[in-house]
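Dear H.,

Thanks for agreeing to be a second pair of eyes. The structure we're designing against is below in token form, covering all 116 positions.
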């Protein structure tokens, strides 16, 4: 962690329900906390997931929380659950390309972040 840049690890689990191997070339993603865009980037993966298999990829996400300090402090002070959203697009295939869209939403409860 640096003063103007923080790093997080995004764990992306891919389930392949097909019998054939799924090749993943590229991931474009964005991470939002409420209305704040925390990160938006791309990652070159060049990995595969076997048929009827599951694989988790770890992707380093870099952001600058300092630019969002006032709105983040306001959100945390409210005590309300923080809504987060991950959106992405996976580019798959070696010869025949196909884009797969993903979206995940959830909430973080601010009280759970504070030690007792």
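And this is the sequence the design step returned. I haven't edited it by hand at all.
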């Amino acid at each position: 962690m640096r003063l103007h840049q923080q790093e997080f690890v995004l764990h992306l689990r891919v389930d392949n329900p097909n019998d054939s191997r799924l090749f993943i070339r590229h991931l474009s993603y964005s991470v939002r906390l409420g209305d704040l865009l925390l990160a938006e980037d791309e990652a070159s993966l060049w990995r595969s997931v076997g048929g009827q298999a599951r694989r988790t990829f770890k992707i380093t996400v870099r952001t600058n929380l300092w630019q969002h300090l006032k709105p983040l402090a306001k959100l945390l002070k409210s005590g309300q659950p923080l809504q987060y959203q991950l959106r992405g697009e996976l580019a798959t295939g070696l010869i025949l390309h196909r884009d797969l869209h993903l979206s995940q939403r959830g909430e973080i409860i601010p009280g759970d972040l504070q030690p007792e």
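Two observations from my side: The beta strands are 6-16, 22-33, 36-49, 53-63, 82-92, 98-108. The chain has a mean pLDDT of 89.

Warmly,
E.
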